[in-house]
Write a structure and sequence with these properties.
Oligomer: single chain
Structural class: alpha+beta
CATH superfamily of the largest domain: Histidine kinase-like ATPase, C-terminal domain
CATH class of the largest domain: Alpha Beta
Strand order of the largest sheet: 2-1-5-4-3
Distance between the termini: 50 Å
CATH architecture of the largest domain: 2-Layer Sandwich
């Protein structure tokens, strides 16, 4: 390689490449796709500078003496490499190095974001993430999904091939996008529901009004109509009025998804919140021969959220659990709150019912979708809407045993 014969040229080339990429990025700032391509193309020279900076930093006190003897240009390059290392270490994107032949890949985390992702409490199976990244084709980008303790999460994976000091390897970048995708999906559903309910209500209102008016006119003209005709018309108009009123009520329930008031966050004592929920829900479970248990560790836990919206989200989950365990002998409800890694509040709602069928788990938060015969598909959709509006996330986590488990994190 040229870097082996001319060790001083590789950093210069890397910096020149980065400057060229920066200039290119400035011209395509309006195109997210081209910006992404520029960022991926910048990874190989950044990785080379990073490795050289780490090697210089690990030489000990002698490195400082040698650095003092370097020319100003080389000192500037060394400082740039060390600065780049610090930036990459704290970058909000997880970077991994993939080495080895196909089937023998070794995936190594390169920065703090990658190490946090693989740490206990995040990924359910760190080795599965390694296999997922190793299976990605070089030069491509893909939306991937992996299991965490909070449920399935999605991320954008990009892999590029490079050679560092004569060693071929691949550099993988994993950018979590679950929150952004969820926010976009919620916004799209909210707009769709708003448009649909508006148009349906505009059509239903005159139908309901005209059916009532026609019924009144029929009552006045009954004397001049045959009895069987009058009876048939009355039945038809009554059916139209009833169905129109029912549809107005049905559409009105969906309208609530698009008309939720903005959250008014304030400190909420989780212990007090659970005490209210226990007083409201526990007697119902006890009357069915079961129990509802609420735990908070430590008791002083607080969360910044709209108290009314957070309570409504949990009530929806508790009602959903009660319906799911309606045929379960000795039904059990376990609601717990604790701090997870990173200081995030984790609220878990679990029951011992039949659980969510595997083929439905990905759709249970979708508006209009329901696994119940009489369900409207609003309860869990509203839960996700309220939790997200208060800066949190809600996931369905597959339980180890039976039942269903929902996790809210703030």
């Amino acid at each position: 390689m040229a870097s082996d014969r001319y060790p001083g040229m590789a950093p210069v080339a890397c910096v020149a490449a980065l400057m060229a990429l920066s200039a290119t990025a400035a011209t395509v700032a309006g195109s997210p796709r081209l910006l992404t391509l520029c960022a991926i193309a910048a990874l190989p020279p950044i990785a080379m500078l990073w490795r050289r900076g780490r090697a210089s930093a690990h030489r000990g006190p002698a490195a400082g003496a040698v650095a003092g003897d370097l020319s100003p240009d080389r000192q500037a390059l060394l400082a740039a490499a060390q600065g780049m290392e610090a930036r990459l270490e704290h970058a909000p994107i997880a970077l991994f190095s993939i080495a080895g032949a196909a089937g023998e890949n070794a995936v190594t985390p390169l920065n703090a974001s990658a190490r946090r992702l693989l740490a206990p409490g995040r990924a359910s199976d760190p080795h599965a993430i390694g296999r997922l990244l190793a299976a990605q084709a070089s030069g491509g980008r893909a939306l991937v999904s992996y299991e965490t303790e909070r449920g399935a999460e999605r991320a954008l994976a990009a892999v590029t091939a490079l050679t560092v000091q004569g060693e071929a390897q691949r550099l993988a970048a994993l950018l979590p996008v679950e929150s952004q995708l969820e926010a976009e999906a919620l916004n799209a559903w909210r707009q769709l529901v708003q448009v649909l309910t508006h148009e349906i209500m505009n059509s239903l209102t005159p139908v309901a009004s005209l059916s009532r008016t026609a019924g009144d006119l029929l009552a006045e003209a009954q004397a001049g109509l045959p009895q069987d005709v009058s009876a048939d018309l009355g039945t038809a108009l009554d059916a139209i009025a009833r169905r129109a009123a029912s549809l107005v009520d049905f559409v009105g329930s969906y309208r609530s998804l698009s008309t939720v008031s903005p959250a008014q966050p304030e400190p909420v004592a989780v212990r007090d919140l659970f005490a209210r929920l226990s007083m409201l829900m526990a007697p119902q479970w006890q009357a069915r021969g079961g129990r509802a248990e609420f735990t908070v560790e430590p008791p002083s836990l607080e969360v910044m959220a709209d108290p009314g919206q957070l309570e409504q989200a949990l009530i929806n989950l508790l009602k959903n659990a009660a319906e799911a365990t309606s045929d379960t002998p000795q039904p059990q409800l376990l609601v717990s709150a604790r701090l997870s890694r990173g200081g995030r509040l984790r609220i878990e709602v679990a029951d011992n019912g039949p659980g969510v069928p595997e083929d439905m788990a990905a759709h249970i938060f979708t508006p209009f979708f329901s696994s119940k015969k009489q369900g409207r598909g609003i309860g869990l959709a509203m839960v996700r809407h309220l939790v997200h509006a208060n800066g949190g996330m809600v996931r369905y986590a597959r339980p180890v045993g039976q039942g269903a488990r929902f996790i809210l994190s703030f």
